[in-house]
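Contributing new complexes? Match this layout with magnesium ion.
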Amino acid sequence: MYTTVQVHDKHFIPYLSEAVIQEKIGELAAQINTEYAGKRPLFLAILNGSFMFAADLFKQITIDAEISFIKLASYKGTKSTGQVLTAIGLDIDLHNRHVIIVEDIIDTGKTLHSFLPQLHHQQPASVALAILLHKPEATEYPLHIDYCCFSIPNKFVVGYGLDYDGLGRNFKEIYQLQG
Ligand code: 5GP
Ligand code: MG
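Output block (do not edit by hand):
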């Protein structure tokens, strides 16, 4: 049943149903299938949040394509570099590859904004962003989003890979914080 859920201490209300999510992913995949035919794109999914979206999207890809998974970890750099992001598990040479980053949500945009320059160092042929959710009102760091499933208001969501303090990733639907 698709009703209000409790995760830890908070209540969440139904926001995006399984059918709505899957339909949108189908549309996105169709677009990618057309635009990347013959290019053998490399999907680079950012863990943990994007695992479900990446799996469902990739299942709808009918052209030759590869997928790999990375984790972004931040550590303190020097004073001038501040927080630095490092990609764990990035073991594929991106040179001349058509890369499609798969991410669950863009909130402030800080994560991807700091990570993308590192990708460009490897001189990929192209880099595109495929994002499940985007919160335009919260975005502080400009990013060009090529494929986006849903633009949502600036409210906390869980489910379909996204967690609240570790829980809720297993929901097939997306829920929004009540209130
Ligand atoms: P950004 O760097 O764009 O500000 O943040 C991206 C990360 O913040 C996401 O990958 C996600 O882990 C977390 N995040 C931002 N908004 C939400 C939300 O509404 N729900 C959940 N579960 N995580 C969020
Ligand atoms: Mg994430």
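Reviewers usually confirm one structural detail per submission. For this one: The helical segments are 18-35, 51-59, 110-121.
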